[in-house]
């Protein structure tokens, strides 16, 4: 009966909108798509999953249907489809059925996992702060950056930069999100910070396992995971309570927050996201959940981007020298946001890094209603494709960023120069696309640019010391280089040894 009804709907869409079937992934078994599931597991184990997806699109076309463990899925890297799913038909799709249940005990409900009215509410809580003119506080960032430089060897010995850059961004982001740095760049980092980070990462790992289990997530049982969540929540509550105190003080000062006098864009104000959110709501759990979501989304993405940029720069001395010349030519000017934006080669390096190594490796949505993708169906693969309610629409970002139609010449090569002319539109979705685009894009771009410009000032040379020359994927919440970024540093000024 259900199949009959489904066929009727499909026929209606074919007649009304000219929908035709997209090619089908050649599953080996008839049910559940288990072959694809196990194939993905195998490639994940050998760290070749991203390449495998890219090859699948080369073989089966830019849009094809598949079975994801019994659910109907459409895999697409067609930029026209991306524009519709993530942009113009945004409301037909969502993330909540994919993300909410598995992440609920750890994160609660918040901006990253919800759709509809609650997502809009969450977005309105966090977005205004990211829009403030001076939210990217480069002088505060410089304080942390100096500590980062101080930790690195000056004798040319090999160092893996990856964990150090992560520490830099954890300190920077906690200062902005919670109001206090975790200070893990300190030689002896506070035990409390380390306890939170361990708990947070364990919480994240368990949540990842639950996401993989999908509807069977109740099978995941681990006391350590439950305990880690308690530790992470207690840490967040400590800062939430301070934020509520801040709210109460401001209320007392302003007499009434409803006067909205607090909603200024003050260039001298040091913004703390939790404090700004607390001016909108004093609800403890809402604040804790939202800040956990933003910390999750933002605590390592910029660090990963910088690690990947240096991974390429230490393999391409000509590019490193070109970057250095651009930065040193303007050494007398302060590194303001405008100055950084005007360094074209620096900007091109960042764009090219995030093209080849997008931090978020897939963009996946579930259709909330019967809907249509504009292209990918029929023999010529140009006809609209019917998307039944409940289908997964999945885009591997790594694959779309290597589309031969959009990124010529040599889509797989690291070539910052290509950005002199390139305007890729929806084939380039490093920060997402449409209303759900990363709210921190400007801040992240600025901090990544600032860090790279400062490395060009501080380091004369970076020697590649990786045993493995190729970039090997590590798929966690963000996609990074599995082998880190091992380098030998030659400093521009051979000052004090540490
Ligand atoms: C280079 C750095 C970064 C990259 C490449 C990046 C990329 C992304 C992408 C692709 C998404 C969309 C995910 C989706 O489609 O569901 C996203 C969402 C988000 N990002 Fe970022 N991000 C970066 C840094 C940050 C930072 C530093 C923060 C916070 C301090 C942050 C906070 C968020 C939040 C809260 C969302 C969820 C938005 C929503 O669902 O409405 N991101 N980011």
Q: What is the topology?
A:
Elements: H1 2-17, H2 34-45, H3 49-60, E1 63-68, E2 71-76, H4 79-88, E3 93-94, H5 96-107, H6 116-131, H7 138-151, E4 158-160, H8 161-178, H9 191-213, H10 223-254, H11 273-278, H12 284-298, H13 301-313, H14 317-329, H15 337-341, H16 344-356, E5 362-367, E6 371-377, E7 383-387, E8 392-396, H17 397-400, H18 441-458, E9 459-464, E10 473-475, E11 479-481, E12 486-491
Helix pairs in contact: 5-9, 7-8, 8-12, 8-13, 9-10, 10-12, 13-16, 13-18, 14-18
The structure holds protoporphyrin IX containing FE (HEM).
Protoporphyrin IX containing FE (HEM) binds next to helix 12, helix 13 and helix 18.
Organism: Mollisia scopiformis
Cofactor: heme
Binding site for heme: 438
Name its key features.
498 residues, alpha+beta, Cytochrome p450, five-stranded mixed β-sheet, three-stranded antiparallel β-sheet, 18 helices, globular, binds protoporphyrin IX containing FE, iron, iron ion binding
- Low-confidence segments, ≥5 residues, pLDDT <50? none
Strand fraction equals 5-15%
What would the principal axes of the Cα set say about the shape?
globular
Strand order of the largest sheet: 1-2-8-5-3
Assigned CATH architecture: Orthogonal Bundle
The computed structural class is alpha+beta
CATH secondary-structure class: Mainly Alpha
For the record, give the distance between the C-alpha atoms at the N and C termini, rounded to a whole number.
Answer: 74 Å
CATH-wise, what's the superfamily? Cytochrome P450
């Amino acid at each position: 009966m259900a199949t009959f009804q489904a066929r009727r709907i499909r026929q209606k869409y074919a007649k009304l909108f000219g929908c035709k079937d997209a090619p089908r992934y050649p599953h080996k078994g008839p049910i559940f798509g288990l072959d694809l599931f196990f194939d993905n597991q195998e490639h994940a184990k050998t760290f070749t999953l991203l390449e495998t997806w890219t090859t699948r699109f080369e073989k089966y076309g830019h849009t094809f249907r598949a079975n994801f463990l019994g659910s109907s899925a459409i895999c697409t890297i067609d930029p026209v489809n991306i524009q519709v799913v993530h942009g113009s038909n945004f409301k037909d799709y969502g993330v909540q059925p994919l993300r909410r249940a598995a992440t609920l005990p750890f994160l609660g409900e918040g901006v990253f996992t919800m759709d509809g009215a609650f997502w809009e509410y969450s977005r309105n809580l966090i977005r205004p702060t990211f829009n403030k003119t001076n939210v990217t506080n480069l002088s505060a960032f410089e304080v942390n950056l100096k500590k980062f430089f101080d930790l690195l060897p000056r004798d040319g010995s090999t160092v893996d930069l990856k964990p150090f850059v992560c520490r830099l961004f954890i300190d920077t982001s906690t200062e902005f999100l919670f109001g206090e740095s975790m200070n893990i760049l300190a030689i002896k980092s506070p035990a409390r910070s380390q306890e939170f980070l361990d708990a947070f990462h364990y919480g994240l790992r368990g949540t990842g396992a639950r996401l993989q289990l999908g509807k069977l997530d109740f099978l995941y049982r681990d006391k350590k995971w439950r305990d880690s969540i308690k530790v992470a929540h207690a840490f967040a509550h400590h800062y939430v309570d301070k934020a509520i105190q801040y709210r109460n003080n401001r209320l007392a000062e302003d007499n009434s927050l409803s006067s909205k006098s607090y909603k200024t864009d003050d260039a001298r104000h040091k913004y703390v996201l939790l404090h700004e959110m607390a001016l909108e709501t004093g609800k403890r759990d809402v604040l804790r959940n939202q800040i956990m979501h933003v910390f999750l989304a933002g605590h390592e993405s910029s660090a990963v981007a910088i690690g990947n940029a240096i991974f390429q720069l230490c393999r391409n001395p000509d590019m490193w020298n070109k970057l250095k010349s651009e930065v040193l030519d303007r050494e007398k000017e302060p590194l303001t946001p405008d100055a950084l934006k005007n360094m074209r080669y620096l900007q091109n390096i960042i764009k090219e890094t995030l093209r080849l190594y997008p931090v978020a490796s897939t963009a996946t949505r579930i259709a909330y209603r019967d809907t249509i993708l504009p292209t990918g169906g029929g023999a010529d693969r140009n006809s609209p494709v019917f998307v039944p309610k409940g289908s997964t629409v999945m885009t591997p970002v790594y694959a779309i960023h290597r589309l031969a139609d959009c990124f010529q010449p040599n889509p797989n090569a690291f070539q910052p120069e290509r950005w002199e002319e390139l305007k890729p539109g929806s084939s380039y979705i490093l920060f997402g696309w449409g209303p759900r685009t990363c709210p921190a894009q400007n801040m992240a771009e600025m901090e990544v640019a600032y860090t790279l410009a400062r490395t060009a000032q501080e380091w004369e040379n970076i020697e590649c010391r990786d045993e493995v020359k190729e970039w090997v994927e590590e798929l966690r919440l963000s996609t990074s280089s599995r082998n880190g970024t091992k380098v030998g540093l030659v400093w521009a000024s051979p000052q004090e040894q540490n």
